[in-house]
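We treat protein structure as text, and this decision shapes the records that our systems exchange. The tokens are whole numbers drawn from a learned vocabulary of local backbone shapes. Below, we set out a record of this kind in full and without editing:
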Amino acid sequence: MGGNGGTAVTGNNQPGNNGSTPAANRGHGGSGAGVSGLSSLGGRAGSDGIVIFTYTEDTVLPVSFKLFTAKAGANAINLHWQTTAESANSHFTIKRSTDGINFESFASVEAKGNSNETNSYNLADKKPNIGINYYQLAQVDYNGNTKILSTQSALFEVKKTANSSVYPNPFNSSVNANFEQGIFEKADLSDLSGKVLASIAIEKEQTNCIFKTDKFTSGIYFIKLSGKQSSTHKVIKP
């Protein structure tokens, strides 16, 4: 049998006008058209008495695809996909692009092969490009046939470490913390054991806070700034 969507034509075996007998079971039409012995889905008579049969081939997809996601983390973009069934599935390929048009090979992940269960796959791009990264997921069967399943994108940004400082250090009656606006939400002053001795809530517009330390004994302390980012400074009271 020929390829999908082929058309088979079989002759009527009646003499033509010139006395010749047309060739029976002749085939033409789309690529891979069959010539005889077809199991057809239906037929119709043409105007010249030729019966035209059409057929289709049932194709079993090697993968029942469920989802594909790309999510940016602090240091990588994490890729995740799932299938609900696999048949003769060799492996998956992932290609990467910065424009969504020109893709380059990035990774290959071994598949389960044959399965009727939900399967999950994970892959991390630990060196993503700054900006939007596009990922194209494809499936490859045992015969080497490839099918693109999905394309996803994720925005990767390098987060700047917020600047912060403390002074004076060493300190006596008070110690100050300076920081960038809108980054931190709280400042804690703790001792060596980790016990928090004082806390200050930081407003969005705030860039400075002051701890009163005149009653503190000599020793080593820590000021921890926390919020969208965190920063810890060691301070000393002589």
Notes: The chain is about 0% helix and 50% strand. The chain has three domains: 1-59, 63-156, 164-237.
